[in-house]
Model the fold of this input.
Amino acid sequence: MSDILQVRGLTKRFGGLAAVNDVDFDVREGGISGLIGPNGAGKTTIFNLITGVYKVSSGTVSFGGRDITDLEPHRIAGLGVTRTFQNIRLFKNLTVFENVLTACHASASYGLADSLLRLPRFRREEKAIMDKADGLLEILGLSDRKDAIANGLPYGLQRRLEITRALALDPKLLLLDEPAAGMNPDETEQLMRLIGEIRDRFKLSVLVIEHHMDLVMGLCERIVVLNFGQKLADGVPDAIRGDQRVVEAYLGGGDK
Amino acid sequence: MSSYIEGILMLSGINLIAVLGLSLLTGFAGLFSFGHAGFMAIGAYSAAVCTKLLGLPFVAAIAAAALVAAGVSWLIGRATLKLKGDYFCIATLGFGEAIRLILDNFQGLGGARGWPGIPPRTTLLNILILDVIGVVLLANLVRSRHGRNMIAVREEELAAKVAGIDTFRYKMLALVISAAYAGVAGALLGHYMTFIQPKMFSMVKSTELTIIVIFGGLGSISGSVLGAVVLTFLPELLRAVDKWRLVVYGLAVIGIMIGRPRGLMGGFELTPKSIRAHFARRREERAIKAGRAAEDGDEALSGEADGKGGL
Amino acid sequence: MAQFLQQMVNGLSIGSVYALMAVGYSLVYSIMNFSNFAHGGVIMFGAYFGFFAMTLLKLPFVASFALAFVGTAVLAVVIERVAYKPLRERSAPFLYFIISAMGASIFLENIIIATIGPTFRTYPDVFGRTSISLGSVSIGRLDLIMFVISAVCLTGLVLFIDKTKMGRAIQASAYNMKAAALMGVNTDRVVMIVFALGGMLAGIAGVFFGMKYTVYPQIGNITTKSFVAAVFGGLGSLPGAVLGSVLLGVIETLVAGYLSSQFRDLIAFVILIGVLVFRPTGIMGKTTEDKA
Done:
């Protein structure tokens, strides 16, 4: 298996403070990788750097062998990297269906004139993306909430909708930022299964930030541990579990 | 039909075109402009140059008005739409004032005293035709992937970006189309009044257009249509208390933002399908609300959920 | 040379009043992260408060002045409570704040037109028309007083923000409202104080504009210049707002003096375009990335 994402020497400074400092890691194609670390370790910042939300201070990100450092977010998304957010960001006032349909936009290529004049191409492609959105909602089990307003959904379903919306882009790499935040153990269990199913069904790679150790250890094939913006360790779950530095960072004994 | 009523109808039809454009910009793409009357001014003067000085047919003048207004808006967009929203607002504010000042000092086009003798080409019929075209094109646009992308920018710009939407491009598209609509409205206004003057396009005019969009509801085309007609007629009916009209409007605008942000129509389009869907959604929302009361109090109290979807 | 110095002096004086407006606006901007476009309405009310205190209540200048800025401080806080607080509480989008500000602005302007009328009114002549000569340069008494009071107010504001506990709370909130709240800062109070301060400065500016020009319901439109000045100096930066305002005042006066007074009002927009195209962060602004 080759690496779909390669991060090299990635650094982000806010003012004088390095939120992410010289971090290297890879995400294997078709794998599920975890990014863990205490609060403020720079996990979400790394997501923001990979997806182009922040400008990189130094270092490179390459995806599928192509340098995507500092491309605009929509271009990176267009190449097949998308994400969810820690504090869910849905199109709040739109319905569940509209949220997903909007994200299907890249599967259609009709132009402005086609839509203004409702030309045959518009009708054909619009039908296709509506079917696609319906299909995704079906797979993710949101069909019965299709016409509900996104903001009115229970929390767990909002997270699920955000994942569905991300899948509408046909991503090759999906970044999940604390997908289990605020969930009870049952829901977390369900979510783990869901992530695994998504990976198999959509043939994509996943990088997940998570605090729930059970989830990370049970789900991820490889784990990257961050602390204070730097990479602490990198490896398979068992190796990470036994790594002295990781234990210290998590138990707060890191000052020795 | 008395010519008085016809006159007001024509004015509301002209206003409607400008309002439709502004509705796209503010209601759908979520951008706020203080200077939309400036685009009307550009349209009015460009069209008048076409017919009065160049002797071109009215259709060509209208097309020119749309193009010139769109072109100018493109320049403004290029300079500001990549920056934070405030820059765009301030730029439109400056633009609206600057256009007026420039025209005031441009003696070749009548200067501050105005420019008379524009041929009276605007008729109720051509206003109606353009209104219908304007509504149909806009409705088609907002229910396409292009329109949905604009709405996504309004709803959550960052999420739109990572969903692969070129937010700059779609903000620009909304701005350029809305300026073209304003340009057409300006052309029609000039050829209806047969006289144009820079102060007809002051910030007050921009504000009036925005008020109509807000009353009609952000993101509602039928609301904009209703708003344009009602709010053009209303001042005529309320002549006696006219000076209090804007006082009430000001308060109403605040009230709408606080209580019913999607406007009097609540983002609700009047089509048979939407009416059925609306009632279904109401039932669903009630059910969800009941089920949600226990969990996640914060989200449920966010207020947004109560301000939409109702008539 | 003498003429140039004269223009500079006049420019500094008007620029210092622009600074009062621009600082009030920037202060609110730095906390709330939105442009309070109702600021002009507050300035206009300041002009009217001062005017009626002097003409109707026959109060002396100092008392009228105090009444005006206390009045506008209260008005600004009331506007915040009515038009913005409900939006703040449910974290409404940026657009709603701007529209609500527009509503407040329409209301303020038109309530004056409906009750007092649209006529222009002239302040009583408090300081006389004589000017003070300094060599070849003469300074109008009003211009001098405007400059001195503005400078004192701005210095006072800087001291308040730098030296008091509340001032530091304001700084913390400007940096990060949520974090400040977590650290125990009463952010609602901070917002109130910031609006009161902005309102006070607006009231003072209003009285000065009323005295320098006349009082009329649309006088608030002059705030457009403070927005331009704030962008010129660097949106959200208080020193930038002062610098941008003073420069704008000087440039305007020079343009009016050497080119044509018709270009006087246009030059602000030329500057605006120039800044937006070439340096959107303004003179003092630094590039900031929105924290996601």
The longest helix of chain A spans residues 120-139. Chain A touches chain B through 49 residues (CB under 8 Å). Residues 16 and 57 of chain A are 11 Å apart (CA to CA).
